[in-house]
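Chapter summary example.
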Amino acid sequence: MKLTGQSRFPDKTPNEAKWYGVDWVQALDSASISTVSFTASGLTLVGGTVDPDNDSRTVVKVSGGSAGTDYVLVSQITTSNGETLEVSGPLKVR
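The structure predicted for these 94 residues follows.
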């Protein structure tokens, strides 16, 4: 799943543990991803990292949350040329 060009992350249920990703290819130009972080208050996040199959994409496994609640998932990277980039979007637990 990717957020590029979208206004929100796909929904999940409280019992699901799903992978979410952000495609940074347009923002990277010729740089690479040096560091990755994901945050989302109220959700459990595991494995925020560069996708092993696509080095311009970051991924995280998201679980938990309360049904009927909208959360905000934030992804931040630092690039090899020193830029800090951030994207965020709502993620609804249904």
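To summarize the output: The domain at 17-93 is CATH 2.60.40.10 (Immunoglobulin-like).
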